[in-house]
């Protein structure tokens, strides 16, 4: 892979400056009480620049949303022959737990609190959960040559089970973060719970 160009590096730096400025404001004042104009002023850029990098205000907080939505579908699609969707997603999720991946919910307690106290962010998270389930369903349906639930509901039912498991695990992990435990303690306990949850699903 070629190294990023100077232009790409500058764009990434600008994106990071905006994200850092927004996060600081949101943590101090709450997501719902900060405007895009205030973020722009804090970052030293125009309001248009902010919206060019982050089309929705929620994207300033949930900037890992693309990975959140597409990650499980990628794991299922890339599984080896003979590996079930449940096994593939379980292994992918447990690997994310072990590396304390913020995509699955590992975050500082103030960030998690800001997230759960904002109705707007919670609504966007619900959308992400739905999009993630739909992405998994799309992969499974394509593998089975199915075009809709009317043709065969199985891929969609499996995706719903997987999506439900991920939704429960995300909520539980955020709860643990809000309880203020040490990240290593959280990770060890959550790994046990994740194994239990995936063990309930049929392969």
TrEMBL record:
UniProt DNA-binding region: 35-54
Pfam families for this protein: TetR_N (PF00440)
MF terms (GO), sorted A to Z: DNA-binding transcription factor activity; transcription cis-regulatory region binding
Domain of life: Bacteria
SUPFAM superfamilies listed in its UniProt record: Homeodomain-like
Swiss-Prot/TrEMBL keywords: DNA-binding, Transcription, Transcription regulation
Database matches in Gene3D superfamilies: Tetracycline Repressor, domain 2
Residues of the HTH tetR-type domain: 12-72
InterPro entries documented for this protein: Homeodomain-like_sf, HTH-type_TetR-like_transc_reg, HTH_TetR
Protein's name in the database: TetR family transcriptional regulator
């Amino acid at each position: 892979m070629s190294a990023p160009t100077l232009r790409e590096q500058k764009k990434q730096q600008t994106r990071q400056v905006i994200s850092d400025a927004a996060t600081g404001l949101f943590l101090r004042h709450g997501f719902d009480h900060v405007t895009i104009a205030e973020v722009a002023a804090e970052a030293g850029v125009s309001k248009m620049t902010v919206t060019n990098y982050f089309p929705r205000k929620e994207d300033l907080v949930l900037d890992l949303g693309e990975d959140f939505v597409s990650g499980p579908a990628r794991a299922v699609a890339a599984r080896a022959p003979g590996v079930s969707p449940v096994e593939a997603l379980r292994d992918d999720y447990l690997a994310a737990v072990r590396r304390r991946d913020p995509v699955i919910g590992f975050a500082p307690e103030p960030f998690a609190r800001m997230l759960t106290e904002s109705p707007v962010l919670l609504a966007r998270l619900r959308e992400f959960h739905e999009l993630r389930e739909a992405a998994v369903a799309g992969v499974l349906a394509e593998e089975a040559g199915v075009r809709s639930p009317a043709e065969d509901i199985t891929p969609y039912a499996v995706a719903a089970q997987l999506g439900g498991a991920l939704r429960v695990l995300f909520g539980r992990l955020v709860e643990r973060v809000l309880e203020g435990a040490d990240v290593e303690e959280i990770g060890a306990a959550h790994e046990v719970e994740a194994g239990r949850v995936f063990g309930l699903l049929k392969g």
